[in-house]
Amino acid sequence: MEEKQRGKGHRLVLMPSPFQGHITPLLQLADILYSKGGFSITIVHTVFNSPNTSSFPHFTFHALPGALSDTEASTVDAVHLTDIINTRCASPLREYLAVLLSQGDKEDPVACFIADGVLHFTQSVCDEFQLPRFVLRTGGASPFLVFASFPLLRQRGYLPVQESRLEEPVVDLPPLKVKDLPLFQSHHPEAFYNLVCRSVDGCKASSGVIWNTFEELESPALTKLRQQFSVPMYPIGPFHKYFLPGSTSTSLLTPDKSCISWLDGKENKSVVYVSFGSIVAISEAELLEIAWGLANSKQPFLWVIRPGIVRGSEWIEPLPSGFLENLGGRGYIVKWAPQEQVLKHPALGAFWTHNGWNSTLESVCEGVPMICAPCFGDQKVNAKYVSDVWKVGVQLPNKLERVEIEKAIRKLMLGDEANEIRENILNLKEKANVCLEEGGSSYCFLDCLVSDILSLKSSTSRAL
Ligand code: UDP
């Protein structure tokens, strides 16, 4: 971007959804617009999972009061929590914007609102103030195309998913099969469908959609979305590559950096890194299958076991006693890892992931082949793209079994396919680097985004 500070004197108000995989890209986007665009930044957030404000002294933060009770916040049902936020945050946000926009910071008038795509309530609140609203989609464009097709998929009988049809191709969305369609374990089955449809409508009504992806990775999906939506699409990712790794912390948990020195002692491309992100939960039986699959593979492994990830356990009590000790230093377990630094480490050979979008993109950017074990939401679509479209990983069967795990690890680390997969992912890594350089696709879309925000701004100022 030529004039780095074009946004100087204009404020952007951004609101994240309060989950790790959503907070990180939104704060990264805010930092990109601050450092590359020169905008002033205000982050409006829930008290539940509030961001680490000390990492961003250059932002203003405002917590919306009273959105969630402690009991509600302790539920593991992310769809239900998001529904509550969509209902309860409207009033406090309205009150906050009314004050912010009427008193106005004369030096920094608000140019627009940028909301996480699942916070669909923000569209009508912004409309009341004639405040332009952009959407940040924290997932990929390919899974979003599936979300945008939900009514059609229901009409064609693919949704709700039926066990007997899992292997059937979804003719409208190749190469997906019914088993790849997004599902969410919610106590309110209809809630996921409704949340998806409202979020899609919220994108259609917005001033534009910002993506943490890049054109070269998801061109077919972005092209289709441009045909289906009449609002601009700005694929300006990968967001985390705008910054030095670890330069700002967006993590809700404290990463255990001791694993980096453990990795230092391992051979190049030898270690399997295992992490299922911030929300996925597993059973005790699955924990044991993973443990024995890793042990039997004979490859070194770094395994993130979040406290509480095993249903009914505090941490790793279900592992057989002496499990790690008996592996003679071949395994290392942490509660939370500095994932970006881990993926960059030369010792990394593969990433066994649940295929949350952030993890998938981070792996692509570091050229680390993936073992895919998706659980819910967009993860199944992401995994299908990793294994069958980009061909940068292999999928595990749905049921986690030690023999299959051992086989998948060997296939990815040592098998004939390994070289081809590695070559494919290094190719994508190169594209991810190029798109951010001057004249690259993400560089140019960011430039357009800044220009579009500034041109909208003048009409908003008049309206206010
Ligand atoms: N992450 C991390 N340390 C860990 C595990 C995950 O820093 O030990 C980060 C990871 O880098 C990613 C985010 O947490 O940015 C997880 O987001 P993702 O979309 O992959 O999954 P989610 O947590 O939303 O299921």
Spatial extent as radius of gyration:
22 Å
Task: List segments where confidence is low: pLDDT < 50 over at least 5 consecutive residues.
Answer: 458-464
The residue fraction in helices comes out at 40-55%
Give the total of domains: 2
Pfam families: UDPGT (PF00201)
Keywords: Transferase
Organism: Glycyrrhiza uralensis
Protein name: UDP-glycosyltransferase UGT76J3
Give an overview in words.
This protein is an alpha/beta fold. It has two domains: 11-237 and 436-463, Rossmann fold; 258-431, 3-Layer(aba) Sandwich (Rossmann fold). Helix content is 43%, strand content 13%. The protein contains 17 helices and 13 strands. It has helices spanning 20-35, 70-73, 78-88, 90-103, 121-128, 141-148, 150-155, 189-204, 215-228, 258-264, 284-297, 339-344, 357-366, 379-389, 402-413, 417-434, 441-463; strands at residues 11-15, 40-46, 60-64, 110-116, 133-137, 208-211, 233-235, 271-275, 301-304, 331-334, 348-353, 370-372, 393-395. A seven-stranded parallel sheet has the order 3-2-1-4-5-6-7, sandwiched between helices. The protein has a six-stranded parallel sheet with strand order 10-9-8-11-12-13, sandwiched between helices. Helix 6 (141-148) packs parallel to helix 9 (215-228) and helix 11 packs across helix 15. It is globular and about 65 Å long. The two termini are 29 Å apart. 47% of the residues are buried. The chain binds uridine-5'-diphosphate. Uridine-5'-diphosphate is lined by residues 20-21, 24, 251, 255, 275, 277-279, 304, 336-337, 339-340, 356-359, 362.
